[in-house]
Amino acid sequence: MKTWSLSIFLKILLPSLGICTSTFYYHSQAEEINSIIKYFCLESVKDEMIAHSNQIDNKIAEHTCNCFLERINNGEKLEPAKEICKTQTSIEFNL
C-alpha cells in the first residue's frame, strides 16, 4: 500500500517539477530579453537627452524605459508605447 501511495505521489510530483523548471527557464529568458530592451532604451533616451540639453538625468531615463517595458510587455506596439512614455515622462518631470 505504501509503494502505491509513493508511486502516485511521484507521478504527480515529477511532472509538476518539470513544469516549474520550464516556467523558470522561460521566465529567466523573458528577464534577459527585458534587460536587453531596457539597455537599448536607456542608451536611446540618454542620446536624445544629450542632443537636446547636454545633460543626462538617470531618473528620467529609468522612468521612461520602465514605462516603455511595461507597455510593450502588455502587448502595445513599439511606437505608440515610446510616444506615450515620452509624454508621461515630460509631464511627470515638467520637461
Describe the 3D structure.
By secondary structure, the chain is mainly alpha-helical. It is built from three helices and no strands. It has helices at residues 2-53, 58-73, 78-92. The chain is globular and about 35 Å long.
Helix content: over 70%
Instruction: Tell me the radius of gyration.
Output: 22 Å
Helix/strand order: HHH
Overall 3D form:
globular
Helix vs. strand class? mainly alpha
Short description:
This protein has 95 residues and is mainly α. The protein is built from 3 helices and no strands.
SSE topology:
Elements: H1 2-53, H2 58-73, H3 78-92
Helix pairs in contact: 1-2, 2-3
List keywords for this structure.
95 residues, mainly alpha, 0% strand, disordered N terminus
